[in-house]
């Protein structure tokens, strides 16, 4: 009997002890093929212990609940700029330890209190040249249904869509946020959307605009440039209109109260370094926030479809504007959509 | 007898505690968030106290200006400012930048604060700003409950309708209940003959038929809804077949319409209507039908006056089940519906996960819960007479 009891007791103890054991360093990003490549080049090359990675849908509600419940199971998270700023103000993310992470390697604005720049992303007008030999080259032409007949697709949501609507109405990119901050400018944006609405289809998931254009359901769409670029690399005849680019940067942040915060900082230092990032650029046209990698002529020449090569004429999405006007404009957009 | 009662109570106590602890208390706490208002009082306790004592005429005393500058600076330092900034910005767009600007400048500001704050941001010179801060002092607020019904509060406390271009939620509630009732009606009409047929089948066939009803549960709702998306799209198999047979001249646009939403919901929820009906019908005593026949009732009369009233509890249970589930669905409308087909649940999820505005999420949930409860209760009362008549 005793022969059975001892292992059984040990097993029971083991069951109870498991939660007390150290959890593997957990990094959370947006999933998909990009995360597979990041696992291969960034996470697996981290020297200080194993890294587990998991995907999330960029919803920060669960992170907030995790911190409030003091049961933090994620350590390093890739977050969008507005979520980073608000999470930092609320103490949802740790302050980055800039003695561990080298702050000088980032592009301007890439190193903030709670975030270290990860990668850039953007949206632009694209269409299938196999179906349409020519298409709109800017947003004014995107709005011109006489010259370019056919359905258009934009993202369902106020962010990016209202900027695009103003540019479609002829507002220069540099003045978009100044105009959109005024009630008259907001009216103007919604009026522009009203005009295009008979020809508009809205998408929600990032792959949808690609499928809408592939199936001919819409003629011209605004989509994530990374996905369009991958389509082109896979042989699709997409025309990607870079002058219509709107872009932003995601950042790496450490969840507050993480038991692995120190290791998290070391991981962030590692995955923002040139060597692993250069390996990643061979697999995916990322837009690094590491200045040396972004400036690397070899990387740029090898990836003509990299956003970094085209972002000069684009509009950077204004984080502070959307933190302030987001709740109001998103509701008005939803109300407009339902009218 | 008393002793057995006591014993019975003891036996069900664990279950009661479980329901209380894992269901009633969390739901109650969540609903309480719809009225809870503690962000300002927590981050700016002294300012709140001074404003509570202020008569609301003109501008508040210098002490309020001094307190708000100091406490905002401290909140920024302690990283507690995000919540209060979001709370005030929700009450009035633009307050976020005012509060953050003040917090960042707090160390540089000098007395008299009434002058230096106004110089920094003109909003501090407006009585409205201070009235807003005072009304957010807690402990409870009607802000979220009003907003969730498209009302808004004026600075002096009056309640007015939100501007036309901001009204949203009343439409959403009406649509949610409209779609849910339609789906419930279709499910009940489709499920009744199926449940009847299965209940009348002989031994091996009835279990086989029941298994077929249950098979869709093996895949997730998301998969089943996505399947509809694949089937119904412009170049999908349904359009392809109809075009091929010459029934259509151009592909029909079904995805992005109300029809697609209703179709997907009916498909997902149909088993929930069949199962309760089936379980009631299998327990019905067939001798009643024979008795009715022996008394001269024809087939129609036997169905209408015996079978239908007896099976009504199952219809009611199945209908209520489908309705309750339909009200809370948001994956199907989001996937196959169009811009005018979104339901309340989608907005609740969005406020919870994306905007992290738990007050709005709780307020919308509270209304949804109350209205759904009222509709189910009404259905019980209206059909109560019929169901009770069998006794």
From TrEMBL, chain A:
Entry-linked InterPro entries: SBP
Alphabetical UniProt keywords: Signal
Secretion signal span: 1-22
Organism superkingdom: Bacteria
Protein name (record): Extracellular solute-binding protein
Organism: Falsiroseomonas oleicola
From TrEMBL, chain B:
Membrane topology (UniProt): Multi-pass membrane protein
InterPro entries documented for this protein: MetI-like
Keyword line: Cell membrane, Membrane, Transmembrane, Transmembrane helix, Transport
CDD domains reported in the protein's UniProt record: TM_PBP2
PROSITE patterns in alphabetical order: ABC_TM1
Full protein name: ABC transporter permease
Family: Belongs to the binding-protein-dependent transport system permease family. CysTW subfamily.
Organism: Falsiroseomonas oleicola
Domain ABC transmembrane type-1: 173-379
Transmembrane segments: 172-196, 208-232, 252-275, 310-336, 356-382
Domain of life according to the entry: Bacteria
Major location category of this protein: membrane
PANTHER family: ABC TRANSPORTER PERMEASE PROTEIN, INNER MEMBRANE ABC TRANSPORTER PERMEASE PROTEIN YDCU-RELATED-RELATED
Any single Pfam family the record assigns to this protein: BPD_transp_1
Coiled-coil annotated spans: none
């Amino acid at each position: 009997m005793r022969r059975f009891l001892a292992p059984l007791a040990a097993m029971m103890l083991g069951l109870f002890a498991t939660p007390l054991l150290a959890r593997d360093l957990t990094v959370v990003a947006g999933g998909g093929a990009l995360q597979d490549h990041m696992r291969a080049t960034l996470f697996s090359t981290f020297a200080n212990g194993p890294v587990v990675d998991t995907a999330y849908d960029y919803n920060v509600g669960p992170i907030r609940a995790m911190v409030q419940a003091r049961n933090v199971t994620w350590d390093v998270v890739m977050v969008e700029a507005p979520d980073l700023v608000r999470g930092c103000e609320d103490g949802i993310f740790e302050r980055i330890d800039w003695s561990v992470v080298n702050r000088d390697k980032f592009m301007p604005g890439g190193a903030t209190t709670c975030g270290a720049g990860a990668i850039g992303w953007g949206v632009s007008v694209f269409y299938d040249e196999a179906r349409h030999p020519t298409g709109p080259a800017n947003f004014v032409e995107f709005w011109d249904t006489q010259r370019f007949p056919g359905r258009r697709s934009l993202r369902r949501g106020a962010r990016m869509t209202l900027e695009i609507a103003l540019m479609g109405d002829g507002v220069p990119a540099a003045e978009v946020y100044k105009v959109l901050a005024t009630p008259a400018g907001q009216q103007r944006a919604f009026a522009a959307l009203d005009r295009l609405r008979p020809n508009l289809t809205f998408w929600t998931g990032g792959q949808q605009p690609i499928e809408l254009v592939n199936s001919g359901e819409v003629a011209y769409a605004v989509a994530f440039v990374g996905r369009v670029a991958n389509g082109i690399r896979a042989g699709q005849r997409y025309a990607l209109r870079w002058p219509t680019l709107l872009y932003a940067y995601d950042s790496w942040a450490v969840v507050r109260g993480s038991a692995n915060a120190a290791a998290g900082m070391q991981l962030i230092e590692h995955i923002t370094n040139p060597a692993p990032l250069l390996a990643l650029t061979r697999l995916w046209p990322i837009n690094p926030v590491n200045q040396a990698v972004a400036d690397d002529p070899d990387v740029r020449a090898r990836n003509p479809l990299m956003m970094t090569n085209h972002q000069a004429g684009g509009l950077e999405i204004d984080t502070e504007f959307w933190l302030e006007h987001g709740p109001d404009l998103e509701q008005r957009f939803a109300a407009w959509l339902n009218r | 007898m008393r002793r057995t009662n006591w014993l019975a109570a003891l036996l069900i106590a664990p279950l009661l505690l479980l329901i209380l602890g894992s269901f009633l208390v969390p739901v109650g706490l969540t609903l309480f968030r719809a009225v809870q208002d503690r962000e300002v009082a927590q981050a700016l306790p002294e300012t709140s106290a001074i404003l509570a004592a202020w008569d609301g005429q003109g501008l508040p005393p210098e002490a309020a200006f001094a307190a708000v500058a100091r406490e905002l600076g401290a909140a920024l330092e302690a990283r507690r400012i995000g919540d209060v900034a979001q709370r005030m910005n929700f009450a009035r767009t633009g307050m976020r930048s005012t509060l953050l600007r003040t917090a960042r400048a707090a160390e540089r500001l000098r007395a008299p604060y009434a002058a230096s704050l106004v110089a920094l941001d003109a909003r501090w010179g407006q009585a409205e700003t201070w009235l807003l801060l005072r009304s957010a002092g807690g402990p409870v607020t009607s802000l979220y409950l009003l907003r969730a019904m498209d009302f808004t509060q004026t600075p002096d406390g009056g309640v007015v309708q939100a501007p036309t271009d901001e009204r949203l939620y009343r439409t959403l509630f009406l649509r949610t209940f409209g779609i849910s009732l339609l789906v419930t009606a279709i499910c009940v009409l489709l499920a009744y003959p199926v449940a009847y047929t299965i209940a009348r089948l002989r031994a091996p066939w009835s279990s086989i038929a029941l298994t077929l009803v249950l098979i869709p549960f093996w895949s997730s709702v998301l998969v089943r809804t996505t399947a509809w998306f694949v089937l119904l799209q412009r170049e999908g198999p349904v359009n392809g077949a109809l075009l091929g047979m010459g029934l259509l001249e151009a592909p029909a646009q079904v995805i992005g319409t109300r029809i697609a939403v209703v179709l997907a919901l009916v498909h997902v929820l149909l088993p929930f209507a069949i199962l309760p009906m089936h379980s009631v019908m299998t327990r019905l005593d067939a001798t009643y039908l024979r008795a009715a026949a022996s008394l001269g009732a024809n087939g129609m009369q036997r169905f209408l006056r015996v079978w239908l009233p007896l099976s009504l509890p199952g219809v009611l249970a199945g209908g209520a089940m489908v309705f309750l589930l339909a009200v809370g669905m948001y994956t199907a409308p989001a996937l196959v519906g169009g811009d005018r087909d979104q339901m309340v649940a989608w907005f609740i999820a969005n406020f919870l996960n994306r905007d992290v505005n738990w007050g709005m999420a709780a307020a919308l949930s509270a209304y949804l819960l109350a209205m759904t409860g009222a509709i189910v209760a009404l259905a019980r009362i209206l059909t109560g007479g019929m169901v009770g008549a069998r006794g």
